[in-house]
Design goal:
By secondary structure, the protein is of the alpha/beta class. Helices cover 32% and strands 11% of the residues.
Length: 192
């Protein structure tokens, strides 16, 4: 089982379309989440290895764990979905017609026309290899994609089918079979 934690809330994210925008996180919240993860790992006999997204709101928790003797690996496959030029904008500033166009072909259309399609996000999530780690710190969109893959390997037909993201600082249990198996090759080969 992979224990995937959603990062603590980022600063200045409320009401904004946040994907790859690299917002800071309150260091105290990152430390509190790291304490919870460390206690959970100790109780469950998990290896002291954490893999995080490279974005600060995830990486900060991994850095706390590294200070306490954990191995901390950063993996770009754990990044949040790329919303293209919408990223960082208030949701209210995104033209409704553009948003509706994305939702009309939710699996294959790129958000904002230049973002990452949901089908590509699903492929990226499937390609993640945790190695010996059983704990990751990642994002709401990534976790929604993993939850989707638990029920269906094909992309969703409608935006309304997409699972809601878990709460900030919460944990999701994900079966390891969702991700690349050793010996299947590295799905990152050839990826930019």
């Amino acid at each position: 089982m992979l224990h995937a934690w959603r990062h603590a809330p980022a600063r200045n994210a409320a009401g904004r379309c946040i994907g790859r925008t690299d917002l800071p996180i309150d260091p105290r919240r990152a430390k509190r989440l790291a304490h919870r993860i460390r206690a959970f790992a100790r109780r469950n006999g998990l290896p002291r290895i954490v893999v995080t997204s490279p974005l600060r709101r995830c990486r900060a928790t991994g850095r706390w764990l590294a200070r306490w003797g954990w191995q901390h690996r950063v993996d770009a496959l754990l990044r949040e979905i790329d919303f293209g030029h919408w990223d960082g904008l208030p949701w209210s500033a995104i033209p409704r017609a553009e948003f509706d166009s994305w939702c009309a072909d939710f699996a294959h259309a790129a958000p904002a026309g230049d973002g990452e399609p949901v089908a590509a996000l699903l492929q990226r999530v499937r390609g993640f290899d945790p190695g010996p780690a059983r704990i990751v710190v990642t994002h709401g969109g990534w976790l929604s994609a993993a939850r989707w893959l638990e029920q269906d390997p094909a992309p969703p037909q409608h935006a309304r089918q997409w699972p809601a993201p878990p709460r900030h600082g919460s944990r999701c249990e994900l079966p390891l079979h969702l991700f690349v198996s050793p010996g299947e090759g590295d799905p990152r080969d050839g990826m930019a």
